[in-house]
């Protein structure tokens, strides 16, 4: 169900209030433009599952913004977002934190075209795209990253193995998970006893309208 711009703005603001996030009018404007372009492109290519716009705002945009509380000193951070898809969470975070340096990993070319379109449309700078698939144990470039995230790309154990060579010493990895986070943490502990990562935090959130459970699980490379 499509909603008008004013209703979308009110819904965004209510959701941010529910998550105790303070976004400027400029950021809200950028996110509304992002939503508009996403719904337009989604009619032609399958970027996300079809859903009412309010559900898209909550389950994609507000869900991505949960990470803001973990991005202290954004001007000093270079974030790697693996499996970015339609830009969640990476481009949403970039719109909210312009100082954040961002690299997106997305191998599917139609999605890469959309990501480039959003970067141009929102006039975002210091954003790079790796349009290839990461492979476990393979390092595609010299850079390592102080913070890496992904949104429901794979299990925790698989993801930590995938990005091990891309994480800086002492770097953080934040896995965005649903209600089965503890189960995946247990699996990781059982199957990866020699992992170079240590679990430092697991924080549960609820989405402000549906009450859906989200967990941000943070690891540190030691």
TrEMBL record:
SUPFAM superfamilies: S-adenosyl-L-methionine-dependent methyltransferases. HAMAP family: 16SrRNA_methyltr_G (MF_00074). It comes from Candidatus Desulfobia pelagia. The keyword Lyase does not apply. It comes from the Bacteria. Keywords: Cytoplasm, Methyltransferase, rRNA processing, S-adenosyl-L-methionine, Transferase. One of its GO terms (molecular function) is rRNA (guanine-N7-)-methyltransferase activity. It is found in: Cytoplasm. CDD domains: AdoMet_MTases (cd02440). Its EC number is 2.1.1.-. Belongs to the methyltransferase superfamily. RNA methyltransferase RsmG family. Pfam families: GidB. This is Ribosomal RNA small subunit methyltransferase G.
């Amino acid at each position: 169900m499509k909603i008008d711009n004013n209703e979308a703005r009110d819904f965004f603001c209510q959701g941010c209030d529910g998550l105790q996030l303070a976004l400027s009018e400029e950021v809200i404007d950028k996110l509304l433009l992002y939503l508009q372009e996403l719904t337009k492109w989604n009619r032609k290519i399958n970027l996300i599952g079809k859903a009412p716009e309010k559900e898209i705002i909550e389950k994609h945009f507000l869900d991505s913004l949960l990470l803001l509380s973990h991005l202290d000193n954004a001007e000093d951070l270079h974030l790697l977002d693996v499996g970015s898809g339609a830009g969640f969470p990476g481009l949403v975070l970039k719109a909210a934190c312009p100082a954040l340096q961002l690299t997106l990993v997305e191998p599917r070319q139609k999605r890469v075209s959309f990501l480039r379109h959003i970067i141009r449309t929102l006039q975002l700078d210091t954003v790079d795209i790796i349009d290839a698939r990461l492979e476990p144990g393979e390092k595609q470039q010299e850079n390592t990253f102080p913070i890496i995230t992904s949104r429901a790309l794979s299990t925790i154990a698989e993801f930590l193995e995938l990005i091990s060579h891309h994480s800086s010493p002492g770097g953080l990895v934040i896995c965005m998970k649903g209600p089965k986070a503890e189960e995946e943490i247990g699996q990781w502990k059982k199957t990866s006893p020699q992992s170079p990562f240590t679990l430092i935090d697991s924080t549960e959130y609820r989405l402000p309208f549906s009450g859906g459970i989200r967990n941000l699980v943070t690891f540190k490379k030691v």
